[in-house]
Amino acid sequence: MNEFFGKNIISVNDFDKHQFESIFDSVDKIIGMSRNQRSEIAKGMILGYMFFEASTRTRLSFEAAMALIGGTSLGISDVVTSSVKKGETLADTVKILSSYVDVLVLRHSLDGSSRFAAEVADKPVINAGSGTEEHPTQT
Length: 139
Known about the structure:
CATH topology: Rossmann fold
Shape: globular
Mean pLDDT: 90
Keywords: Transferase
GO molecular function: amino acid binding; carboxyl- or carbamoyltransferase activity
Pfam families: OTCace_N
Largest sheet: 4 strands, parallel
CATH architecture: 3-Layer(aba) Sandwich
Protein name: Aspartate/ornithine carbamoyltransferase carbamoyl-P binding domain-containing protein
Helix content: 25-40%
Order of helices and strands: HHEHEHEHE
């Protein structure tokens, strides 16, 4: 699974068959671990999320997964209460949040928003829905 450390997850088309098999093998290993072993995987790490569109299941699944492997999460789930409401750009929001976290999860209404975020972030970005494009963690 180390081959994915620090990598963006934007599209399923970015992965080949071998990489998918590696992901599924890693998931099987994690499932086979005790709760204490799993809680060490991301100990001390922070997942940041930015949901510019409504989401319940996707956001909560990322938060739950991070908690199960020992990490924490923080982020924006309501743009009305964020600086976006005051006109902060996506680039600025991504840069600021990425300075606090180890990985970013983004859902946005604009096509290409996750690839754009990956270009401006200094941390890996996971696409949780990018406009009319795919949602690779749900595909």
